[in-house]
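User: What would this chain look like folded?
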Amino acid sequence: MRSTLLSIALLLLPGLALSTRGQEPGAPAVLSPAPALAPPASPRRLEDFLLVARQNSPLLRETANQVAQNRLDSLVRARQNGVQVAGIGSALYYPSVTNSRGENVLGYDEAISNGGNYAAIAQATKPILNRFQLQTDYQILASQGQVLRNTGRLSALDLRRSITDQFLTAYAAEAQLTFSRSLLTLLRQQDAQLRQLVNGGIFKQTQYLSFYLSVRTQEVTVEQDRLAYRRELGTLRALAGVADTALVTLEAPVPPTRRPLAGLLAPAQRQYTLDSLRLRLDRRAVDAAYRPKLSAVLDAGLQSSSYLPVALAHSVGFGGGLQLSLPIFDGHQRQLQYQRLDLSEQSRRGYRQFLTVQRRQQYEQLEGLIRASDALLGRIREQVKVADALVGAARQQLATGDVAILDYLNLVTSYRTLQFSLTQAQTDQLRSRFALDYLAEQ
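Assistant: Here's the prediction, encoded as structure tokens.
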């Protein structure tokens, strides 16, 4: 059996719900965890494994936390636009050394330093006339939240793909084990009959030894298939985060109904749509950085050039005004940043076009594979029916000695090969159907 070990990836589809309550205006929406369903102790259905994997995935939980952090970032930005109060304290002394004539030989000019600076003030600042900057920042945060949620959907889709693929591998291993066990039971029943025929002189002892060897070989095959199934089931449980180790029987997966190829709403396509929005917002952020910044400032406290209590007592006051920051020249950095964004947009369009063609090609190829698999399965099933009928007829004739043991074993070998081909063809068809369903996910 083919062993598939893929990385786990995430939770946001059925496990998370969109929440916007309590947000600042213009802030991004966030995903909050939906009420968790109780996972089965030992899942057997594909849907149960997917549910457990979504609830156990640390990557999906981390993505949900990142979305929540994005909401907190929007709240932080709202607080930054409010009044900011800071306390400022200083106690600076500027010593000076004079000569005999009273001339300063070491130290700052007291006209500048006043010999010291002792201050304790509270300063309040509030950005004003910054509507463009504030809207741009909120839109950037909202875009980041959309990217995080879409990343969560991509991770959830990757998780579903890996769990489904491994479930099909494990189910095929179980089907092969079931067939090997039934064939061994049949051969053991036939073995008891052949011993009687050998004792009755209908078959020679050497002919029976060939059949006896085939029974022992089938016993080894059953053990190998059991180990293969245990290994694939263990890999499936490891991907889903299930601690159970019991050898259970998996339920047959239900093939998904055919859906059309998802267009721009597909998580993979939406990623590049969000990238386009992000680049436009980056351009707005560049424009906002070159706009004048005006803040209102108000402070109150004491400032003095002397540390004496009398001087400090007469140095209490307050002040206020406006602070203006206006960029004048920066070496044409603004144009260079625009060029960088233009190059990023060219790359985004190239990826987007390539992905669109690729997804269409994959969808059409999978449709062709499914049609071919349906035709192949029909032929294999017919051959299995014929082989089953031949084995049944040969079993009856073997009891009367009308069929040689070697001929019967050749029929059994052909029947075993056809049954293995049927299991593989069914698994490949299911894989193609689920892969087609992934491309239809929106």
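The chain has two domains: 82-128+292-326, 130-290+331-439. If you want, I can go into more detail on any region.
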